[in-house]
Specification:
Blueprint (H helix, E strand, L loop, with lengths): L1 H12 L13 H20 L6 H13 L4 H8 L3 H13 L3 E6 L2 E9 L1 H25 L1 H14 L2 H9 L2
Antiparallel strand pairs: 1-2
Helix pairs in contact: 2-6, 3-6, 4-5, 6-7
């Protein structure tokens, strides 16, 4: 995993093609580009922890929910279960999370942070705070807060229903 991060960071430091000045007329493409850029920037800051932003986010969600089921965690993260399962594998392999059968529903699995996962989360949280501060310095704290509010509206079930009903 560290080798993949080193390769990624080397690619990040090489000259990149300039980003076109005019935004895409497609909302989906513009959101995906912005998401990829922010992930790249946060991944670079989180690199010393050995985690990517996506992995840090999973650990944060597990920590908040304490012992979520796969379904609950997928729903909270707005991921399908197969994508969540794919993203959990390296965290489980590295001993940061543990999956166990739910004693109340043997069809479900619950996810917990291990002691190593809690330690890694604490380490990555300090780096995440740095990334967050850098984002807000570069973009503006008020604009960042407004952006989070707007994006929060888009990933709700209500927006999904309104989108489906608009067709």
């Amino acid at each position: 995993m560290l080798m993949a991060i080193d390769t990624f960071l080397s690619a990040m430091k090489s000259p990149q093609q300039p980003v076109p000045a005019s935004p895409s007329p497609c909302n989906g493409a513009a959101l995906r580009k912005a998401g990829r850029r922010v992930s790249q920037l946060y991944d670079e800051v989180l690199a010393p922890s050995g985690l990517l932003l996506s992995q840090h986010s999973i650990l944060v969600h597990i920590d908040r929910a304490k012992e979520p089921t796969m379904g609950d965690l997928a729903r909270d993260m707005v991921l399908d279960r197969s994508a969540l399962s794919h993203n959990l594998k390296p965290l489980e392999r590295d001993g940061l999370v543990a999956l166990a059968i739910d004693p109340h529903d043997r069809r479900s699995r619950r996810i917990t942070l291990t002691a190593a996962g809690r330690k890694k989360l604490a380490q990555s949280k300090a780096l995440w705070v740095q990334a967050q501060q850098r984002f807000e310095t570069a973009y503006g704290a008020q604009k960042a807060a407004s952006l989070r509010k707007l994006l929060g509206e888009i990933y709700t079930d209500e927006f999904s229903a309104a989108f489906a009903g608009a067709g």
